Amino acid sequence: MENQYYTLIEKQDFYEIIENKFGELALFIDARKGSPVAPMVEFDGKQTALLKRDPNLAVKLEGINPETASVLAESEFIMVVELKGETVESVYGVPVETVEEFSFKGRPTRADELERIKSKSEIIAAFGAVKIWKSGEK
Hints:
This protein is mostly beta strands.
């Protein structure tokens, strides 16, 4: 049984966003372990996006080119291509949502990672609690 009681936010230093002749975008990033689960991209409309790859891992993309930002802000979907060197590990479509701002609350684990501790209700759900006993004096 493997439960992760926090969310890791990794910073992707180098990435590419390309556009095809139909105006569709593709994002090329480093491959991560495991398969994505209900992934989505949140974009602040400026220079930063957050690829929420699964409930435990998000990838932060900073310094988005201003020309790309205007196209990304109008996109409903983006294709994500995960690479290991030059080899494609996985390709998947992701919805894009424009948000006003991100909440990067958490504690730094390295220069390129943040760890977000989950809430009590998220821990209880991840633990799979079937009964909860409240004890002690009031």
